[in-house]
Amino acid sequence: MGVEALLFADAGPKEGARAALFGVPYDGTSSFRPGSRLGPNAIRQASYNFETYDLDLDVDLEGARFTDLGNVEEFGSSAAMVKGVAQSATKWAAEGLFLLAVGGEHSLTPSCVQALNRPAFVVLDAHMDFRDTYLDDPHSHACVTRRVADQLGADHAVVLGVRSASREEKEAAERLGLRTVPASQIRAGGIEVALGALDELPERVYVSLDMDVIDPAYAPAVGNPEPFGLTPLEVQKVLQTLGERMVGFDLVEVSPPWDHGETAALAARMIREVLAQLSLAGKI
Ligand code: MN
Ligand code: MN
Question: For 131-146, how does the pLDDT look when each residue is reduced to its tens digit (9 = 90+)?
Fold first, then answer.
């Protein structure tokens, strides 16, 4: 099977599917280490590392009702990408599919949120991504949470694991009421500190996992590595806690040129965790 035809492990036909994964091979606004356009296919390849059976959860993904729609087209500009992904995501969501978007860089997220009916927004990210524009581009991956807050209101969003922002971002977040749980608080008080913040959100949540929230020791191949991060087990705990509440998911910012395979493997495993949670919830 060529890379072009590679699909996520255990993905079935679109017919009868209740969830759909799709790739967005776009990294046009990357500010430091480009390469995330290669993320979707690297993560698909890594997905074949794992057993179909999840020993901890007693769930088997073989025969689960999810499909892989492949990658969306390669867009030239961020504006074209944002528009194109919104159109595709809106169409697929209207077909009743739970969407799992795989980046690519983080700039795809507002388009996926827009396709749903005003969910709450939980983003795991080392960065606040709360700039109004970056390098004159409001669709930059540095502006993601700001664009989602434009849609939902900042009080419908929470950022977990943040440890990097400009002073302007911090002040805007405080002014607009964006909730953040810094990585330092999670390190001091445990992941339960983050779980408490999730209790205050509306029931239906969209989850965006920027892989750079995880410490670079575990996930080195990201566009903007930031030390002092979360552990994979802490992120897994968040996904397990939100399992039944999730209405959409994305995983972004894996940059394969910087990888020896460990970051792609961890990313694929996180996607499988979400799929297992969907299965447990009877959604796929
Ligand atoms: Mn981000
Ligand atoms: Mn980030």
Answer: 999 999 999 999 999 9
